[in-house]
TrEMBL record:
MF term (GO), any: glycosyltransferase activity
Subcellular localization, as worded in the UniProt entry: Endomembrane system
Taxonomy, superkingdom: Eukaryota
Key words, A-Z: Glycoprotein, Glycosyltransferase, Membrane, Signal, Signal-anchor, Transferase, Transmembrane, Transmembrane helix
Name assigned to this protein: Hexosyltransferase
Main location class: membrane
Pathway the protein takes part in: Glycan metabolism; pectin biosynthesis
Gene field: GATL1_0
Enzyme class, broadest EC rank: transferase
Listed InterPro entries: Glyco_trans_8, Glycosyltrans_8_dom-fam, Nucleotide-diphossugar_trans
Membrane topology value: Single-pass type II membrane protein
A GO-annotated cellular component: Golgi apparatus
Amino acid sequence: MKSERQFLPLFFLSFFIISSTTTTTTTATVRIRNAVVTKIPQQFREAPEFYNSPECPSIENTQNLICSIEAVHVAMTLDSTYIRGSMAAILSILQHSSCPQNTIFHFVTSASANASLLRATILASFPYLKFQVYQFDDSYVAGLISTSIRSALDCPLNYARSYLANILPTCVKKVVYLDSDLVLVDDIAKLAATPLGENKILAAPEYCNANFTSYFTPTFWSNPSLSLTFADRKACYFNTGVMVIDLDRWRKGDYTNKIEEWMELQKRMRIYELGSLPPFLLVFAGNIAPVDHRWNQHGLGGDNFRGLCRDLHPGPVSLLHWSGKGKPWARLDANRPCPLDALWAPYDLLKPPFSFDS
């Protein structure tokens, strides 16, 4: 049964250049009874500013900039755990965009997060960035989450992608959703321009050679009423870390509710093991618009257990995605990088510890 939700947008859009702060500190805090435990701060450099090429349309005079149909709208989640990855992703998007000043970011944070601190972190490194921050109330999804094979996948914010149509303003018609553990090496406008046809809700690279049955349990496949879900579809695996979504069609089709229905069933009987991905597959697999595989060279973080090094898939590359357990910043810090982590490192804005006080 669909419940009424309220999301808390922080209507903060930075159109201005703030003063000369070149680094910022992100400090994650965890309250244990009456004590506050503070993690080691992270400080980031200020990124260079990037400008539109001459052929880019101007959106600066748009009455409501956040609603601009000329802009490329990008949605990402934002938290203190993955902030380093998010900063690298933002830099890569801007650096390779032909119209970086026409890119508007929509950051979704947990309602329990320090949104002001996260916002200040983004502003200090990207003082010119056009963005808005929204708070997602974890309680709306916490009761629907079932434990998965990796605890990081159980974070409520990991499910925010299912609620973008509710969170973002209704004037935002189309959005590119991106995970925080990736970098682009191509113009995001090309991805945003993916045609969705007359009725497709989302677009993503499909991987039909993957073992689709492995994403669901024997309980699912042995139940005819459940396994027939895919009877009329050529269902293939797709990764939900890179998607182009028509939010208007999503809202009209009430797809958040469709995803929640599968999550509610999962609470009653175990039909999958892998976090927020399977409900997307149940609702959309076999009925999405195709995207070239170059736009999601995923799995670079290895599997969900050991995070071993992996090679690129054959073919050209527009987006590198460290999905899986291993993250490039963690492996670089541990002096155990995989070869492809060197492709992420140039976008890392973290200030080295020895320069914190310089």
